[in-house]
Amino acid sequence: MKMIWVCGVDEAGCGPLVGAVVAGAVVLDPNNPIEGLKDSKKLTAARREFLYQQILERSKAWGIGEASPAEIDEINILQATMLAMRRAIEDLTIRMGAWPEKALIDGNRCPELPISAEAIVKGDAKEPAISAASIIAKVTRDRQMVALHERHPEYRFAQHMGYPTEAHFAALQQYGACDQHRRSFSPVRKVLESIAN
Predict the structure, then answer these.
(1) What are the CA-CA distances from residue 38 to residues 47, 139, 155 (Å)?
(2) 3-state DSSP helix/strand/coil % of the chain, to nearest 5
(3) Could you read off the pLDDT of 74-107 as tens digits, one per residue?
(4) Which candidate, 111, 92, 124, 121, places its Cα nearest to that of 6?
(5) How many Å apart are CA 49 and CA 43, to the nearest integer?
(6) Contact at 8 Å (CB) between 162 and 178?
(7) Which helix (H) or strand (E) holds 197?
(8) Sheet of strand 61-67, all strands in order from the earlier edge strand to the far edge
(9) Residues 137-178: tens digit of each pLDDT
(10) pTM, to two decimals
(11) Res. 65: pLDDT tops 80
(12) What is the secondary structure of 73-94 as a DSSP string?
């Protein structure tokens, strides 16, 4: 009987004011199960890192895709998220050597794909492959934020990961926006307008 390969897909970074939106795609290997997969937001950072390594080593295939802050500003966060998801599946397809037969997408809509796709609300809590995708997306994006923190320590990105916190707003007011801030997001736009006036 032919195995049907299904990939789970999820994103990290819709809400932050800075950086790329990152998507992960994972095809789990039923012969090499990974214990403890769940929504990345419900795991500690150390547990996410551990599972991230397990997913890379034990899944049938995985992929990462992202859309840059400039792309987010140009096409909006929803379309950029769909673009990142599609890129993640394309990356997985290159690594696997073939398209999966189906994609399970976390959320309520699917990107345009040449394969069958199903949107699952709260899929990261229901489908292990989506949980795995959420983990690799979150770890990848968090690492990007730590790297950005090293370039721009004044914003303290490693603490808040780019989310709209009081510390982030205070830094925006004090230093303006860096090259990775999403200028289409109203908190960033308002700060830039107030500095300009």
Answers:
(1) 11, 14, 30
(2) 50, 15, 30
(3) 999 999 999 999 999 999 999 999 999 999 999 9
(4) 92
(5) 10
(6) no
(7) none
(8) 61-67, 21-27, 6-12, 102-106, 116-120
(9) 999 999 999 999 999 999 999 999 999 999 999 999 999 999
(10) 0.95
(11) yes
(12) HHH-HHHHHHHHHHHHHHHHHH
Asked if 132 and 8 count as a contact pair (C-beta separation under 8 A), the reply is yes
Tokens of 115: 């394969």
Furthest-apart CA pair in the chain: how many Å?
A: 68
**Nearest-CA neighbor of 14 among 97, 100, 108, 93?**
108
Residue type, 77: I
Determine contact, residues 21/66, Cβ cutoff 8 Å. yes
Torsion over CA: 150, 151, 156, 162 (sign) = negative
Residues 6+ apart with CB under 8 A from 50: none
Six token digits for residue 193: 């307008």
- What is the rounded CA–CA span in Å between residue 12 and residue 134? 7
Residue found under tokens 């970074």: 13
